[in-house]
């Protein structure tokens, strides 16, 4: 039996995506659910196409994130970040 939805793997144990800043060429890191990060070298915001994390399409995403916090699988800070991403994603549609 799963402790949480198996689709939430990218939230619970996100992979790190390493790429280069298109402005200065410095190496930057994204968690797979990140859609933008600030380059630590030049300070510019770098965007990438979001992966299709379950939070973007699952109707239970908000409840799932709250459940992951209750189970102490993710921190409140991570939950806030994910809920903010979800809100911005929905507003962009």
From TrEMBL:
Name of the protein described by the UniProt record: Phosphohydrolase
């Amino acid at each position: 039996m799963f402790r949480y939805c198996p689709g939430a793997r990218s939230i619970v144990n996100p992979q790190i995506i390493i790429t280069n800043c298109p402005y200065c060429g410095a190496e930057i890191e994204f968690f797979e659910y990140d859609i933008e990060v600030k380059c630590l070298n030049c300070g510019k915001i770098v965007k990438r196409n979001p992966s299709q994390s379950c939070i973007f399409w699952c109707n239970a995403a908000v409840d799932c994130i709250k459940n992951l916090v209750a189970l102490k699988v993710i921190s409140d800070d991570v939950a806030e970040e994910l809920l903010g991403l979800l809100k911005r994603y929905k507003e962009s549609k």
